[in-house]
TrEMBL record:
It comes from the Bacteria. This is Pirin family protein. Belongs to the pirin family. It holds the Pfam family Pirin_C. It comes from Microbacterium sufflavum. Residues 25-120 form the Pirin N-terminal domain. InterPro entries: Pirin, Pirin_C_dom, Pirin_N_dom, RmlC-like_jellyroll, RmlC_Cupin_sf. Residues 178-274 form the Pirin C-terminal domain. PANTHER family: PIRIN (PTHR13903:SF8), PIRIN-RELATED (PTHR13903).
Amino acid sequence: MIGQRRLVLEPRDVPLGGVRGMTVLRVLPHRNLPTIGAWCFLDRFGPADTRMRVEPHPHIGLQTVTWPLVGEIRHRDSLGSDADLRRGQLNLMTAGNGISHSEYSVGDDPIPLDALQFWVVLPESARHGDGGFERHTDLPTVELPATEGPDATATVVLGEFAATRSPATVHTPIVGAEVVLPAGSTVRLPLRSEWEHALLLVEGEAALSEHAMQRNALVYLGDSRTDVEVTSTEGALLFLLGGEPFESDIVMWWNFAGRTHDEIAAAREDWEAAAPRFGTVEGHDVRIPAPPLPPVRLLPRTRTV
């Protein structure tokens, strides 16, 4: 068991540059904590008025979870998927042994855009399989009774929360849920004690067990909790993530999640050689080239908390 924790993971600005031309807030991975359950990556891009143009790029060994807050995003991938995504809907792409995709804001002009993007690392049983894409436009919600004030509402985006399950495909015991906390509300969020969890304040104002939360910072709670109390005076939008601690350490570089340096190097070489494992995204004349590997062997990321 990990035990109860209260570790604040502060976001950092990451310039994506190049044809992506965006700066994002990155919360995960953290130098002390590479995974929370199977969640291994969290970016927030926005809020901003922007023309998003993320050209085709590859992934292995993970799922991408795109959760828009404002604006519309067009997803195209090497499986032939072409889908627009908006608030309250989920795009879930499973990379398996290899996939490529692009993400554009809808329209030719800058639009208001804000979204969370997560990666979920795949276990050994799924990471060498075929790729897949799912779009879920009707996700389940659950009412969370308040101990004070109005009740809260949660949308179960991925996995299971409060005895309610998302229809999206998962490969490990996991939870991803958006929680809307009304003004003047105090709610106890139910947790599974054998899982580790973290809570992100997306918008508004909230306190976690009487400690004020910082917007865009992730509060890591560890495990061994059956619930946690959240309170908001003005109202808040939160995102809960967690799950069973992941089965192994991972090597993560660029858009790849693997287990060894050699596996990552082989995937990079395949992308640069336009190998069939990554396919082709229709409608694009350019794609994002892989950066050079660092001059040292990539090592697994290990937790220190």
